[in-house]
Amino acid sequence: MSKKKFIIPLILVFTLISQNSCKVSYSFTGASIPPEAKTYSVQLFQNLASIVNPTLANYITEELKNRFLTQTRLTPVADFGDFAFSGQIVTYDVSPTAIQGNEIAAQNRLTIAVKVKFVNAIDPKQSFDKTFSQYAVFSSSQNFSQVEQALVQEIVEKLIDDIFNAAASNW
Fold it and tell me: Residue ranges of the domains in the chain?
């Protein structure tokens, strides 16, 4: 009998909380997505960088799709999702970063920048059009072609984190 006295008020409290909760859906990933948002779409990123990595555009596009698929309740659609992404790769550049006394680079830096247009059909004030840039440093003694794939994976992971957080975390 005493369990019923405890459980019934507890159920009522949770019911009242759920009915009076704010209009933002939170997840354990840090995403805060309005409950009205049901879909997302990601258009293939165009590669407009002066140096073109032939697999990068598809890789970034698929990683962004996968992030929303695995960390939100949104459903992917081909076009015009409630959250819609498009963009361009604007920088893919290798440059020296740490010059030694004999004017030889000790380290190099791979930088990737993407310009992202995000349209939030539910709350247009949250939409943006901005450039995200990330880099990774590697030793100049390493052959770039041998470390390129690992560097790209590291950089793209950071870029996707930045884009996801900008679009789905309003706090």
Answer: 36-168
